[in-house]
Each structure stands twice: as structure tokens, then as C-alpha cells.
Amino acid sequence: PQGIGEPSVYHAVVVIFLEFFAWGLLTTPMLAALHQTFPQHTFLMNGLIHGVKGLLSFLSAPLIGALSDVWGRKSFLLLTVFFTCAPIPLMQISPWWYFAVISMSGVFAVTFSVIFAYVADITQEHERSTAYGLVSATFAASLVTSPAIGAYLSREYGDTVVVILATAIALLDICFILLAVPESLPEKMRPASWGAPISWEQADPFASLRKVGQDSTVLLICITVFLSYLPEAGQYSSFFLYLRQVIGFTSETVAAFIAVVGILSILAQTVVLGVLMRSIGNKNTILLGLGFQILQLAWYGFGSQPWMMWAAGALAAMSSITFPAISAIVSRNADPDQQGVVQGMVTGIRGLCNGLGPALYGFVFYLFHVELNEIDDRENLDKAAKTNMVNPTDERSIIPGPPFLFGACSVLLSILVALFIPEHSGPNLRPGSYKKHSNGAQSHSHSPQMGILDVKEPLLEDSNV
């Protein structure tokens, strides 16, 4: 089927909303299933699952983008949504298979990359930031609403009902792609044969990383991104589990926390970010955002009371201004015809962190013996947490969340590096020859606004998947 109407941003918006709304519903059942499946070394196993998934996504994203340049976007939208949502019904059938398939699904968990390319196919460059903003807002809406709905349904009707509903929404998304989404890649841009060659340079996940050291300014920016995003990627893979099992949040409170921080992040990235960029400039906005991130991670690390988590969550929302500002300063330091290259470098660094961060956090939790050996009965959570805090010989009485303090130290190093980033150096990047694809997977990254979308993707993907 050719789909309904002409290709539009609204087709992409519906696909994104349905996929991540389905996963958002599973936030509460997933946390319970994780603890029940891995009662020993829960944080370590959580980190390994998400680490494998993130690394596989990093390795496969360029290849899938290159193949979609040849074969079209619709088939790869169908492929990525199907395999990303395939683990959902396994939660009730076999939790072990559920987590195994989640880690392996990282090979296809790149729906955003294909969606970005889809939007780039059908928009002019001056329209692209607005289109990405619409996709971003839809993504945030699914994040704000679905965990709370899932927590309510789980409490009233049980986890089975939530899993069935999430599966039905995922199937609806697949049917929507099959029947309603038209192909965005023009027929003349596709080769006549499916055996046409692809650019393996374009499909190489390390290609953009190898260009990092060719310009000193971009090198400083990429080091800043790595040191600051590594703890953020790890944090979002384990933080909601940490709130639920260690701090003693109920499922409803975790859902409310996600909603509040999501809304505050949207406000920070729209209202606050615009004011700061105009008043103090790009570089100072980056430094301010990193400062908020250090405070947030330190508060998470030392905090042992629920109110501390809420206060740190507000700081986390403010720290979300960092990466849009980084994306803007990257764009300013690159020639117009090199925007895709430099944005691709930052995206590659962040993709690598999505694999390394969760594994690092899980390993640090394991080293400090932060385990979930208590019975996960809701009435005993507060009691167990308070008992651990009273015992002066327990590491958790001093540092409840050790990985967050490691993250704060990493962000402090990123601030020291960011201090050397020039505020205005003009377009000076010459990373060498780069084959531009007007309809390729890189074309989505020509807009500085891509950084805003990148900030939010791990939050939903890691916390819910």
C-alpha cells in the first residue's frame, strides 16, 4: 500500500507517539519484573542489558540509515518498530526471554534515526527545526502521560492488562505504518535494483568519531559531550529502579516524578534556554547547564529522602539546556556544508555513551554492594531503606547512590574542558571529504535542533525499555 495522502510530519509524529506510548505504559511492570527476575545483582544486570542494547544501537544505526537511503524509509520504519516492540508481550510469557530480546533488539532500536531521515526527506532546510520540534513535543507528551496511565492500570487491574494494552498499541503502530504511512524517499532517488551498492563509509559507526581530532574546537566539544553524557545515559537506565527500590517511591510516585521532570524539561528547553542564549551566550549556557548537572548528580548521590529526589529532579530539568546549547555552538563552528558531519560526530559520541553509561552505572552499584535483597513489598520499602541508612557500617548510610557521585566527578571534568571552548571562532572546520546525501540518513542532522531531540531519547528509551 502507498499510504494515505502525501508524506507529512504528522505521519512521523503518530509513529513515534504510538511506539513510545506503548513502552511508557510498561514503566511500572518493568521495574517489578526486573527485580523479580534478577533478585541478586539487579542493578548490575540492568546495566548490562541496557549497555548491550545501547552498543548494538550505536553499531547498527549508520548501516540502517544507509540501507534506508537505498530501499526507502517505510520498510525500515516497519522493521525498527516491529523489532523494538517485539519484547513487550514476552514480559508476561517469559521475563527471561523478555530481557534477552530487549538487549538484542538494540540492533533495530533506531526508530528515531529513520524518523529524522523521513522528516528530512519531506521538509526544506528552513522548515526542519519546526518539524523536529513537533516530533520532540510529541515524544515528550508520550513520556509525560504514559507512565502515569500504566501505573494506574497496574494498580487497578494488574500488570497483565497493562502488557496486553501495550501490545495492542504496538500492533496498532505497525498497522498504521503498513496502511497509512506513505514512502517519503522519492522514487527517482532509489535505485532500480535492491542489490544496489551502499556507501560503507556512511554505514561505519566509527567514521564520524575518527574525524573528531581534526579540529581543536570540535575536539573540545566532543570531549565535553562524552564526559557529561556518559553519566546521564547511565543515570536514566537505572534511576527509576533506584527510586522504586532504594529510596522507596511507590509506582504512582515514580510516574508522577517522570511527568513533572518531563514538563519542567520542556519549559527549560523552550522558555529558559531562549532567554539564556540571548543574555549570556552559548558557552556560558553550556557551563550553567553542566553546573546544574553536577548539583543534580551530587544530590542524587547523597540524598536519602524522597523530597531530596524531587528537588534534584528540578535541577535535572534545568541541566537539559546543555545539549541544545552544545548543538548550537557546534553548528556555529562549522561551515554550512559541514553541518551534517559535525552534528554526526556529537551524535556518535552520544550513541557510544548510551552503551557505556548503563554498564558503568551497573558495575559501580555492584562494586559498592548496592543490591536489592529486600522483599519488594510496598509496605517494607521505606522500612528497609531507613534500616540501611541507620547502620553506620553500611556504605549506603554514607553514600546511598555511589554511581551518581562518579557521574558528578565526570561532569566536573567536562566543565574544565568546556572552559577552553571558544565562544566565537567562526566556521573553521575542515574534517576532510564527506559525501553528502541530500536524502540520506545524515540529512536529518543538518539542523542544530537535533541536539534537543537527542537529549530526550535516552530518557524514554532507557527508562522504559
TrEMBL record:
Under Gene3D superfamilies, the record lists: MFS general substrate transporter like domains
Top-level taxon of the source organism: Eukaryota
Q: Which SUPFAM superfamilies match?
A: MFS general substrate transporter (SSF103473)
In this chain the Major facilitator superfamily (MFS) profile domain maps to: 8-426
Record localization: Membrane
Membrane topology summary: Multi-pass membrane protein
InterPro entries named among the record's database cross-references: MFS (IPR011701), MFS_dom (IPR020846), MFS_trans_sf (IPR036259), Sugar_transporter_CS (IPR005829), Tet-R_TetA/multi-R_MdtG-like (IPR001958)
- Give the PROSITE patterns listed for this entry: MFS (PS50850), SUGAR_TRANSPORT_1 (PS00216)
Task: Give the transmembrane region(s).
Answer: 12-35, 47-68, 75-91, 97-119, 131-154, 160-181, 218-242, 254-277, 284-302, 308-330, 351-368, 404-421
Name the keywords, alphabetized: Membrane, Transmembrane, Transmembrane helix, Transport
Please give the family membership noted in the entry: Belongs to the major facilitator superfamily.
Protein name per its UniProtKB record: MF14A protein
> Whose protein is this, by species?
Polyodon spathula
The gene behind this protein is: Mfsd14a_3
